[in-house]
Design brief:
The complex is a heterotetramer of chains A (333), B (473), C (742) and D (217). Chain A is α+β, with helices and mostly antiparallel strands and 333 residues long. Helices cover 26% and strands 12% of the residues of chain A. The longest helix of chain A has 16 residues. Chain A is globular, with a radius of gyration of 21 Å. Chain A starts with a helix and ends with a strand. Among the domains of chain C are: 166 residues, Dimethylsulfoxide Reductase, domain 2 (3-Layer(aba) Sandwich), CATH 3.40.228.10; 132 residues, Beta Barrel (Barwin-like endoglucanases). Chain C contains 27 helices and 27 strands. In chain C, β2 and β3 form a beta hairpin. In chain C, α5 packs parallel to α20, α9 runs antiparallel to α12 and α9 crosses α13. The longest helix of chain C has 15 residues. Chain C is globular, with a radius of gyration of 26 Å. With 217 residues, chain D is mostly helical. Chain D starts with a helix and ends with a helix. Classes of the chains: A alpha+beta (333), B mainly alpha (473), C alpha/beta (742), D mainly alpha (217). At the A-C interface, α2, α3, β2, α6 and β3 of A face β4, α2, α7, α8 and β12 of C.
């Protein structure tokens, strides 16, 4: 990235953001995650390991939170939007950040479960998070199941990781992705600190030394590098597959066709909860889903005509402008 | 009120005596010095071993993890940067406001600035995953046509710290030139050669003094905004981020206040040590101690105020996530350290408000060290809790730093100590020429006072008797 | 990514020729390779094949062998290495999708701990030998000259199907033995027996999308069940249909399917059948017509279970029973399914039958429970089993009724409860031969271990254990050349065994590949479709990977069976042990795949180890917190693991997941966690003789040790932040529902 | 003030701003000017078209002193290309359809050498390999790091197939951009640096993509 690029792209981007998004993308890769279909089965996550040369770090390092699961399934026991058997939406973070508590709510509760404080005090801090564990429901049982949330890099358009990288190893591509150039990374880890989703993973060790004992290394995908210690990495929306598809389209002098390829997670998802595609193509499945759910890019708060539509973006109120649209989980009450 | 007329310095002290007293600190060291050097080297080697291990194995050995990408390294980095503000405060700020009591104690404070910057600079380097590529942060014309990201506060850091380090080292050196000339004229052997080169042919001519004063004043004026901006820029590493508890507009003044605070506390510590070991009681007087302590107390109160402002703004603000970070500091896993910081930072400084305690050197020694412990904890409390409890609930976790982190932090004190020990044996740690100036001015003032007293008394007598007094004639 | 239009004819031959070039090309590691000229080697193929272009990945169809479901897969091959598995869109089972176990198949293939050479027990220890020596030993013990014949010989396998099954049966016939033990720990054997007795078909077809409600009694449809990927796809349709389906899950411990339920109900283990009857009672209230249609004994049985009684037995509150009944009445047709937690009791058959009664009462049979029919090739259909044959093996070994047993695709030494004493009893079998890819516990206790090709190197045909609307044969073809020269294909070995006995019938087949090709040529024209020649048909079949063989329609004839329950006593201090199955490690066969070890359990998010699940009330009673080690003891033994506390479990239940606690099985599995199967009581379902997996009672005691439980999840609540948003189904029906959004 | 003083590009001294006071500073300024000018000259020459005949293309600039690599067979590129006028893509056949150009399979060599020059020692060696059914283990000469995605097919498309006024017969001139004059060599010899600057300058001059992720993987 030349100096010129940084300066011009930045100002162009800043201008674009105020006008509702940067419009000069060649493609605009986006995703939709339908939580109504997601069963939290982990197929996507393992597919990601297989596709992206993710190292297995072992029990000890998992215990230290050094796992490299680019795509992780978060599992929550509570349902902030719905009380068990009583559909009273509670406050959500987006509204709070903007200073507008949602009108439906009568009182602004602290966003922690009641078991939080005693838990902290009781354990003197050690493992206090675990105390939060079953604060999700007031009922004796987990009446409404679990809430699963597949989280991969959200490919934000106003990414918080990009401006803080001292060497511009992470930057915005003309395809609207947050690129991570492994070989440029010096490992300051600022980007990960500044990612509100905590979706950036750091090579704390030379994982390649022991993650693929022979002949497991023969499975490594030659289309992307195996990262050494000291490098930040994250979900790339399977850039190697995008690259192949774009190259192929270019060789054949045509545009990339919707559904011609997809990311590893999307391809394997047994319920089809994940959808991937080009949002610059108005006929693509993702474009249609985004517009059906009336979610627009470049906004911190959506002005939907039909407020009941399920589309939302995680922590949208932070103005990160993610490329992943989540469709709310559905529950019969 | 007992000490209200106490003098900052004995103004009757002879100039030659000043030279003798201070140059004796450059005499060949005694055993205690070598022991101190050995201790510092031992501490440093802990860090070196840890760092080599970390460099070869990867940052995993520091037990850093996904939410905790930064650990003690960045906290300690801020701590040392903060420490560096003492010298600038004493030598530059007090210089331009003509607070001449700074003169006997500014030299070592200025040295402290340089050395703590030299210590601080290591941390952003050794916390890098691939530090061998550190130079990519520097803008240079490369074959590849790529540049650093000028939007990143870390790049600003690199600029700010190198500028500050160069300037303060230069400031320290320039301020030493007349003293180096004195040294040159009073020593033999290798020291003579060293001082001859370093004193740049100082003869004390009028022209030299004129240029010297101008340069020194200019540098002082340049350093003050620089010092303020350096810590503001360091604070923007956090303030420019989106993270709860970091994304705070009051961070720059808060950081600067904290910096001055820890710097002052460190000055008290070194003041006492130098005063004791080099027998500089005549120069580093209790009265100066008093003044330093009062200054520290004032800054402590500013820091406390800014702390409370930050808590208040968060508590009554509309950002529940930031509030949760605050709560996790109050009652979460970080609570013991947080409350220790609050005690050391805001309660303990009240010891400085009591004259009796202020004048009791052992007490002050302990208090000043604890104040700095508090300030170090403050930096950890900035870095740690936010990383532990930010937006993504999935990533909530608590990190206890590994032995490698502790060893490197511990070793940084050894490195600093080593530099400082070498400095005090090679260079005069009290500015001779400025003490002379001070003594000169004080004496003149004192004489003027006596004269005035005399005249007043004469006037009284005249008033009473109607004629000039005999004594006054 | 779509380069599937490739016909791979003589794949093996080509690879055999150009094998040298394969291993070297394209295996990059960063920083360890040099750019300096002349340091790296580049080797071309000796002879090019038009579809092999260096640098371009090619996809070949095959069949997943990770569980009995038999999903069709595509393997990505580049420079002769298989890199990645994807679902085969042509497979009616998984329709282009794949689960985590299928994804991890490559790690089984490339596993560093694979068996590379035959091993023979010499003087008490297994020693590596040559194939000649191994086959000589085999010949000596089972060859025609050994005189071995009849039921002194047995095969002990997992689920088998396709031509493998055909050859296996032929071998048994040639040996004159009827002993084919089939063992699967994760099975639905009891439910199959009930289906057979009540519907006339062991594995009817469930039409999930047609159901407006699914009431699942512990059936982990989308998790560790009959056909996880298939039912996941069906689940998605069920949830997005014109009326969004409602899922109610009743079980003692939350399964993956339970995690997605609209209403999750904890029930006292073993009382599911009672609840089913209680619901039937509610459904039938005031519905004279339906009641009249039921036989007298069933009518009285249902009438006996009124809400109050059922609530007191099951621990499910009365209003919840009534609500479920209400939902079922509103949402017809529905589907009620029974799963492992129903089957795993001494009265498992009765409970499952009661659940089928509820289906009949609700009129689901014929609407959502459909006849699966049969195919024209019954000899190829999956032969699956349960735990009964495990007991049978132990029994036969105990009676010294067996001389030689061949093991394949099952690991009884690991899965057998310690109470069976299988390890000791197996010593009574003089010659145990294991055909295995990995050094599992059974292999390590065998007398002869024959290393076979991995699923990605071997030929084969399979039929899924659960066949959706179309009966199909899925073809397994090698995705790369064999990694180890001293491994042999299982089919080839079977053929060799057969040739030893029946030279004439089999001598015309050079190898299993030839046998398969020949078998395909012999298929009827109806299956061959528009293929112009046998060679063309073979090529097309390989390319597609799946062969639709047509379905012979069947019919379901509901009939009632006698149902009686034991008396349910209010329980004492001890707990029910649930050895829970998890999609991933399955019954422990995938514990050697690092990806699956590192993929967290979907419910607890624990990785790499075993844990003990309990309810907060139980934890409070025991005075333990998450991370505390507890000792779970039954009369048969004890295991010790860390506690995980959550509300998705009945307070009287202690759940320990299966899959860990291997004593062998390579570096990733060995010595990790505990195996709950070991402490199971040797009780069986009275009717079917299947092991009652959920019928063990345990006591739990704190062991005093405490460590942080290794799980990939920080805070388990969203802390009020909208991470997962939720809306009610009414909103969904209003805004999307029947509308086809994309 | 003129810009002349700042950038030394305008006519120096035209505004009278640059009037050196001391001799020493004059020399210093001159030296500085010379340095800056020299730098720009060097840069501009580096970017200049050296006049290679490929239309619509600016050949990349950069030299590299490569090592002599001993190959299993000393393959004479010069005889094949220069004397016999065989097209590069006849043997490196994957170049136009894959990211790698590929080493020709042994069968391709034997296609001709079953009959041609069978008595030459190098061909005898080749025949030996063929008969052993074992391909020669060539040493890699031109390589980019593993974190770089380089694709031959798109470069050929841009500079040969989609390039107006360019014929496929002259493909060796395009190959020479990065591989040098292979037709003058026996075994290949690395003469271009093939580093990021080399690639980047060419991409800039030929308006190739400049996105990091185009090449970094």
């Amino acid at each position: 990235m030349s100096l010129n690029n940084i300066l011009t792209n930045w100002s162009r981007y800043r201008k674009g953001a105020e006008e509702g998004g940067f419009h000069e993308y060649e493609h605009q890769w986006g995703m939709v995650v339908d939580l109504n279909k997601c069963i939290g089965c982990n197929a996507c996550s393992v597919a990601c390991y297989a596709e992206n040369n993710l190292p297995v770090v072992g029990e000890k390092r998992c215990g230290k939170n050094q796992a490299m699961n680019w795509l992780r399934i978060e599992r929550y026991w509570d349902e902030p939007d719905l009380e068990p058997y009583n559909a009273t939406p509670s406050a959500n973070i987006d509204a709070w950040i903007e200073g507008n508590p949602p009108a439906k709510k009568t009182e602004l509760k602290p966003s922690m479960p009641s078991s939080y404080l005693p838990g902290l005090l009781e354990e003197g801090g050690q493992n206090f998070e675990q105390r939060v564990g079953f604060g999700g429901t007031k009922s004796e049982f987990q009446d409404f199941g679990a809430s699963f949330l597949p989280m991969m890099c959200q490919q934000c358009h106003a990414a918080t990781c990009e401006p803080v990288c001292p060497v511009a190893a992470t930057y915005h591509t003309p395809d609207g992705l947050n690129a991570q150039v492994y070989n440029r990374c010096i490992g300051s880890r600022y980007c990960s600190n500044n990612c509100p989703y905590r979706l950036r993973y750091f090579n704390f060790w030379s994982y390649y030394e022991d993650a693929w004992p022979e002949p497991l290394h023969m499975q490594l995908n030659p289309d992307l590098s195996v990262r050494d210690k000291g490098v930040m990495e994250k979900c790339t929306f399977c850039i190697q597959r995008i690259r192949v598809a774009k190259d192929k389209a270019k060789m054949e002098d045509r545009k990339v066709i919707d559904g011609e390829f997809s990311t590893a997670c999307v391809q394997t998802c047994p319920t089809g909860a994940l959808v991937f595609g080009d949002m610059q193509n108005p006929d693509s499945q993702v474009s249609k889903l985004w517009s059906y759910h009336q979610v627009e890019r470049g906004k911190t708060k959506q002005s939907k005509q039909n407020k009941e539509l399920r589309g939302y973006r995680v922590l949208e109120g932070l103005n990160t402008d993610p490329s992943v649209l989540y469709l709310e989980r559905v529950r019969e009450v | 009120m007992k000490y209200v007329n106490e003098k900052d310095i004995n103004e009757e002290i002879k100039w030659a005596q000043i030279n003798t007293d201070i140059l004796q600190s450059l005499q060949n060291p005694r055993k205690a010095y070598w022991i101190a050097i050995a201790v510092c080297l031992a501490m440093l080697s802990c860090a070196v071993v840890a760092e080599v291990y970390q460099y070869q194995t990867g940052l995993g050995v520091a037990d850093l993890n996904r939410p905790h990408m930064w650990g003690l390294y960045i906290a300690t980095f801020i701590f040392w940067i903060g420490m560096s503000h003492s010298g600038t405060l004493l030598s530059a700020i007090l210089h331009i406001i003509h607070a001449d009591w700074r003169k006997p104690i500014y030299r070592f404070a200025e040295a402290m600035t340089t050395f703590s910057l030299m210590t601080a600079g290591f941390f952003p380097m050794l916390h890098l995953g691939r530090m061998w590529n550190l130079y990519w942060v520097i803008p240079y014309v490369s074959d590849r046509g790529i540049w650093p990201n000028f939007r990143s506060p870390l790049v600003w850091d690199a600029f700010a710290i190198t500028t500050y380090l160069t300037s303060s080292a230069l400031f320290l050196f320039i301020g030493m030139i007349p003293d180096l000339a004195i040294c040159r004229d009073n020593v033999t052997g290798w020291r003579k050669k060293l001082y001859t080169v370093l004193s740049l042919g100082w003869q004390g001519t009028d022209r030299q003094w004129r240029h010297f004063r101008k340069t020194y004043m200019l540098m002082a004026c340049f350093l003050i905004p620089l010092a303020v901006s350096v810590h503001s820029i360091v604070s923007s590493d956090f303030a420019m981020s989106i993270m709860p508890g970091w994304h705070v507009t009051s961070f720059p003044p808060y950081f600067v206040a904290g910096a001055l605070y820890s710097g002052c506390a460190a000055i008290i510590t070194l003041f006492i040590l130098l005063r004791y070991f080099f027998r500089l009681e005549e120069y580093m007087t209790v009265a100066l101690m008093e003044k330093t302590c009062k200054l520290t107390f004032a800054i402590a109160m500013v820091w406390t105020y800014l702390n409370l402002v930050e808590f208040g703004a968060t508590w009554y603000g509309h950002d529940p996530v930031a509030k949760e970070v605050l709560i996790s500091k109050f009652v979460g896993p970080f609570a013991p350290y947080f409350w220790a910081m609050m005690f050391f930072g805001s309660v303990l400084p009240f010891a400085l408000a009591f004259e009796k305690l202020r004048r009791h050197m052992p007490t002050m020694m302990i208090v000043s060290i604890l104040l700095n412990v508090g300030m170090w904890l403050e930096r950890w409390m900035i870095v740690g809790p936010t990383l532990s409890h930010a937006y993504a609930p999935e990533a909530w976790n608590f990190l206890w730093p590994s032995i490698v982190q502790w060893a490197i932090v511990f070793g940084s004190f050894g490195w600093f100590g080593l530099l400082f020990l070498i400095f005090v044996k090679v260079f005069p740690c009290v500015s001779m020429y400025e003490v002379k100036e001070m003594v000169f001015h004080r004496r003149r003032e004192a004489h003027a006072e006596v004269a005035e007293k005399f005249h007043r008394r004469a006037a009284d007598v005249q008033q009473a008797t109607g004629r000039p007094s005999v004594e006054g004639a | 990514m779509s380069g599937n239009d490739i016909n791979r004819r003589d794949f093996l031959k080509i690879l055999g020729w150009s094998g040298v070039g394969v291993a070297v090309a394209g295996c990059d590691r960063p920083t360890t390779v040099t750019l300096e000229e002349g340091k790296e080697e580049v080797v071309a193929y000796l002879q090019p094949e038009e579809y092999v272009i260096p640098g371009v990945g090619v996809w070949f169809a095959s069949t997943c062998q990770q569980c009995p479901a038999g999903c069709g897969v595509h393997g990505r091959v580049r420079e002769g290495r298989v890199l990645k598995m994807e679902g085969n869109p042509d497979s009616p089972i998984n329709k282009g999708k794949l689960c985590q176990m299928g994804q991890a198949g490559v790690q089984g293939h490339y596993n560093p701990d694979r068996l590379k050479k035959p091993m023979l027990r010499k003087g008490g220890a297994l020693a590596e030998v040559s194939w000649e020596e191994a086959l000589a030993a085999l010949e000596q013990k089972v060859g025609p000259a050994s005189g071995l014949a009849g039921d002194r010989f047995a095969w002990f396998t997992g689920t088998v199907s396709g031509h493998q099954s055909v050859l296996l049966s032929a071998h048994l016939a040639a040996m004159g033995s009827k002993n084919h033990f089939i063992h699967e720990t994760i099975n639905n054997a009891v439910a199959r027996a009930v289906n057979q007795d009540m519907l006339g078909e062991a594995m009817p077809r469930y039409d999930l999308p047609a159901a407006k409600m699914v009431l699942s009694f512990g059936a982990d449809l989308v998790g560790a069940g009959t056909s996880p990927v298939h039912f996941s796809g069906e689940y998605a349709k069920f949830r997005t249909g014109a009326t969004r389906g409602v899922l109610v899950q009743v079980e003692p411990k939350m399964t993956l399917t339970g995690g997605s339920a609209d209403l999750w109900v904890a029930i006292r283990p073993g009382t599911e059948g009672v609840l089913a009857l209680g619901i039937a009672n509610q459904v039938l209230l005031g519905d004279e017509i339906k009641v009249a249609g039921l036989p007298e004994n069933i009518r009285t049985l249902i009438a006996a279970y009124d809400v109050k009684k059922v609530a007191s037995i099951t621990g499910v509150t009365g209003d919840r029973i009534m609500r479920i009944a209400e939902l079922l009445k509103q949402r017809s047709p529905s589907l009620v399914v029974a799963g492992a937690s129903v089957e795993g009791h001494t009265h498992g058959y009765q409970s499952a039958a009661a659940i089928m009664v509820l289906n009949i009462v609700l009129g689901n049979v014929g609407k959502t429970i459909l006849p699966s029919g049969s195919s024209a090739f019954p000899q190829m259909e999956a032969k699956t089993g349960g735990t009964r044959d495990l007991l049978a093996l132990a029994d036969a070994a105990d009676k010294k009724a067996l001389d030689v047993v061949f093991f394949h695709g099952a690991n009884p030494v690991y899965t057998a409860p310690a109470a069976l004493g299988l390890t000791d009893k197996l010593k009574n079998i003089p010659f145990k031969v294991v055909f295995a890819v990995h050094p599992d516990e059974t292999a390590m206790s065998a007398d002869l271990v024959l290393p076979i090709l991995s699923a990605h190197e071997d030929w084969g045909t399979h039929m899924g254990a659960y066949q959706p609307e179309q009966k199909s044969i899925s073809i397994q073809q090698p995705l790369m050349e064999r990694l180890y020269p001293d491994t042999k294909g299982f089919g080839d070995l079977l053929l060799a065994l057969l040739k030893a006995r029946q030279v004439k019938e089999y001598e015309s087949f050079a190898d299993y590949y030839g046998y398969l090709k020949n078998a395909f040529a012999a298929l009827p024209a109806s299956v061959k479709g528009d293929a112009v020649s046998d060679e063309d048909f073979w090529g097309k079949s390989l390319q597609k990977g799946v062969l639709n063989v047509g379905t012979v329609a069947g019919a379901l004839n509901p009939k009632m069976v006698e149902i009686s329950f034991p008396e349910f006593k209010s329980d004492a201090q001890d707990y029910y042990l649930v050895p829970s199955a998890r999609l991933g490690l399955w019954d422990g066969r995938h514990a050697n795949l690092p990806w699956l070890q590192e993929a967290p359990d979907q419910i607890s998010k624990v990785v790499w180890t075993s844990w003990v699940e309990m309810h907060p009330a139980t934890a409070a009673k025991l005075g333990v917190k998450e991370g505390d080690f507890v000792k779970v003891s039954s009369a048969q033994g004890a295991v010790e693991a860390q506690v995980y506390v959550y509300k998705g479990i009945h307070p009287q239940v202690i759940a320990v997941p299966m899959g860990q606690g291997h004593e062998e099985y390579g570096r990733y599995a060995k010595g990790r966690g505990v195996n709950p199967l070991k402490i199971l009581a040797p009780v069986t379902d009275a009717k079917t003789g299947e092991l009652a997996l959920y019928g063990t009672r345990v006591t739990v005691a704190q062991s005093g040790r405490r460590e942080v439980l290794v799980k990939l999840m920080g805070s388990e609540t969203q802390l009020g932040r909208k991470m997962v948003g939720t809306v009610t189904a009414s909103v969904f029906d209003r805004t999307e529902g029947a509308k086809n959004v994309t | 003030m003129s810009h002349g003083y700042l950038f030394l590009s305008g006519p120096v001294g035209s505004s009278g701003a640059v009037v050196p006071h001391h001799r020493s500073s004059r020399y210093f300024l001159m030296a500085l000017a010379a340095l800056v000018l020299g730098f720009f000259l060097a840069m501009s020459s580096a970017w200049a078209d050296d006049g290679a005949g490929v239309p619509n293309a600016v050949p990349p600039k950069g030299e590299h002193e490569g090592k002599n690599v001993e190959q299993p067979i000393e393959f004479p590129h010069n005889i094949h290309v220069d004397v016999n006028k065989i097209n590069c893509m006849y043997c490196h056949t994957y170049a136009r359809r894959s990211k790698v150009a590929g080493i020709p399979p042994t069968s391709k060599c034997m296609g001709c050498h079953l009959v041609i020059a069978t008595d030459k020692p190098r061909i005898k060696k080749l025949t030996e390999y063929w008969e052993k059914k074992e391909p020669p283990r060539w040493k890699k000469v031109h390589d980019v790091p593993d974190f770089v995605h380089f694709t031959h097919e798109k470069h050929l498309k841009r500079f040969v197939f989609d390039n107006e006024g360019m014929s496929v017969d002259r493909v060796s001139e395009v190959c020479a951009f990065c591989h040098g004059e292979v037709k003058k060599m026996t075994v290949a010899h690395k003469v271009k640096p093939l580093n990021m600057g080399f690639c980047a300058r060419c991409h800039e001059a030929n308006k190739g993509p400049f996105d990091c992720w185009k090449c970094h993987k």
